[in-house]
Amino acid sequence: MQPSKTALVPSCEPLLATRHTSNAVRRDARRELVLMAILVVSVSPALAAPPERPPETVVKLVAQVQRADYEGNRAALQSLYGDLEHFIADEKLASRVRYWRGFALWRRAINGFNVSADPKDLEHDLTQAIAEFKESSAKDPAFVDAKVGTISCLGSLIYLALGHADRVQELIAQSSPLVKELRVSAPDNPRFLWVLGPILWNTPAERGGGQDKAIEGYQKGLEAARKLKASATDPLDPSWGEPELLMSLAWSNLNRTPPDPNAADQYAHSALALVPYWHYVRDILVPQIQKAKAAAKP
Known about the structure:
Layout: H1 5-8, H2 13-47, H3 54-71, H4 74-83, H5 94-114, H6 119-139, H7 144-160, H8 165-185, H9 190-201, H10 211-228, H11 242-255, H12 261-274, H13 279-296
Helix pairs in contact: 3-4, 3-5, 4-5, 5-6, 5-7, 6-7, 7-8, 7-9, 9-10, 9-11, 10-11, 11-12, 11-13, 12-13
């Protein structure tokens, strides 16, 4: 008996079943891999949030610098100056980081004058602040505010050098070209007008200065600061000025000839409305104004 021909042909069903099963397994495996990839992408940020980006960190540090300035916290200003050093290598941020490092030391010195700090300490801060401002300008030659800071620091160094004629002349030779430059290139910059105020106050009227000129400049700067407030976009670009100009108008009206303590009081409280925690205005200037008002009463 011959074997059946059909028996000589192996059945295809087990082979097809195996192939179908294998394909199904591969498809399921691929689906699982895709799902796992989706889960990794969607879940990993929640499991391990990326570190804060440097610009955001710098913005926070800058806000702390400005608050420490108003609070008269010289130790914090020194510390924040150091904290900002971590970001000077970032070319996109370098100019502004250098500016705010200079700002921290500049304001550390200004606050130091209010507490009779060691003149050598003040000179060191001002000199280092100028170096930072120069680095800022080198990174961005069109950045006006670095030059504004330099002018103010040089003015404070001139004050510290009074009695040393050669040193005073050396500092004036550094400051005068910058003042002349900004009078042409940035005459309406409110921070420049604030820094220019003390120069005008101490310049005789016959040479274009005097108390009235200084006050006029502060008022012009105040108007400019208020106009520019709404247009500020980059948080690392300086936009301060309005509180400082109000403070200077308060000081100027208190110390002008004749004094106007009532106007001084109004300006001082306008500054405190913007910065209620401003140590100098709240704890030093306002008591001086109140004393002057009491003395003026008949």
